[in-house]
Design brief:
Elements: H1 20-40, E1 47-49, E2 55-57, E3 59-62, E4 65-68, H2 74-92
Antiparallel strand pairs: 1-2, 3-4
Length: 95
């Protein structure tokens, strides 16, 4: 194929569309990358799970659910807000 000019989308996918799970995975992977970058740069602090050999947890994703987990701090709240705004702009295209 040949590249074309951008064009506006006139409608989204319908519920139950076979492409929906694949598009969700692409978006979920984008959020995963953003969260990993925030942790690597020490901007966001996850929550240590376990007593003897703790595992750092920052987010859990299952099916179409996402749970964001971190230590209780205003810095984490600001970091999560920044992640969600960036995710919205970069991967979802709203705003």
């Amino acid at each position: 194929g040949c590249p074309t000019d951008e064009f506006p989308l006139e409608r989204g996918l319908r519920q139950g569309d076979p492409l929906s799970p694949f598009l969700f995975l692409l978006a979920a992977d984008g959020l995963n990358l953003l969260m990993e970058a925030m942790v690597t740069r020490n901007v966001f602090t996850g929550y240590n799970m376990g007593e003897f050999d703790p595992i750092l947890v920052t987010h859990l994703q299952f099916a179409d659910d996402t749970l964001l987990i971190g230590e209780k701090s205003w810095a984490n709240v600001r970091a999560l807000r920044a992640v969600l705004v960036l995710f919205q702009q970069k991967y979802v295209g709203w705003g």
